Amino acid sequence: MNESAAETRTPTYHNTDAAYTLPNDRHSSTEHTRLEDQAAGLLTLMHGQVIQTPLTNPSRILDVGCGTGVVTCALGTLFPNATVYGVDLSPVPARPTPPNVTFIQGDICKLASHDRRFPPASFDFVFNRLLVCGITDWPGYVRTVAGLLRPGGWAEMQDLNYAHYRNGKVCSADWKWMQAVYRGAAQKGLDVDCGSNIKAYMEAEGLVDVRVREFRIPYGTWEAEKRPETRHIGEHTARENWILYYHMIPKLLDGLEYSEEEVEELRSWVKGDLGAEEGKDWVFYVTRGRKPKI
Question: How many CB atoms lie within 10 A of CB 77?
Fold first, then answer.
């Protein structure tokens, strides 16, 4: 998508009461294409390992916020004897699907309270990736996940902080538009530093053996010679991230005292700050924890 089209398109959003601030573009393939490319870049970044949890013969797996279903299907292929569910607020687009995979539209925190497919203590593995824009109650969400896990079952949560770095030091704290994003996120209950906070959320709900891996994602290809696994996700990040924030800002700032002119001024700075730049990156956190065995 060229820059003009990216700025002028009108995204669509999930038709739910959830706070999710990214589009689903249900009438076009724009967001689905972005999610597929992002997943491919993250897979390469993690050296072909879609999950970092040491699973052995799981029988029931849940992928929360499954998006296009790309990870759900990968898990179904990786564990062909498991029953695998993918849950998302929007319908999952049609794709080739392993026979052991089922997609369900809904909010897992609501489904877990009444859907017979999600009884307590019934899953060996619960996975989610990049729910930073959708969860307004992380302690409650992690409590739901812990309740769904069997004793000995694992949760893995892959997410981000909105902090950006230049040569190892935070640079985004000085960006006025990012200050506004943090303010808007806070008034909606979003934790945009959830990537580094998930460990504490897991431990508070009694999960054990909690471990965190950090993967640095560059803006552009400046680190690709040294770390070739960053090339794909670096290109993706420099090309796509400014578009996400550009469209996110009005939705996040709705209800605050910003004028339309002020919102547009904030949006005008995003593309320049989030372009490819040597030394600039952010961090992708992979956190896993286990429910204690009885």
Answer: 14
Angle between helices 176-188 and 231-253 (to 10 degrees): 60
DSSP string, 215-279: EEEESSSTTTTT-GGGHHHHHHHHHHHHHHHHHHHHHHHTTSS--HHHHHHHHHHHHHHTS--TT
DSSP string, 167-180: TTEE-GGG-HHHHH
State the greatest distance between any 2 C-alpha atoms of the chain, in Å, as a whole number.
Answer: 58
pLDDT at 190 over 50: yes
- Quick one: average pLDDT of 253-257? 95
Residue 14 pLDDT level (bands cut at 50, 70, 90): very low
Burial class (CB in 10 A: 0-12, 13-18, 19+), 27: exposed
d(CA 39, CA 252) in angstroms, rounded, equals 25
Specify the amino acid at residue 165: Y
Determine if residue 61 is left, alpha or beta; phi over 0 gives left, psi from -120 to 50 gives alpha, anything else beta.
beta
From first CA to last CA, the distance across the chain in angstroms is 52
- Using the structure block, give the residue that is written with the tokens 């089922």: 102
Please report the pLDDT score of residue 29 as a whole number: 79
Helix (H) or strand (E) holding 105: strand 101-105
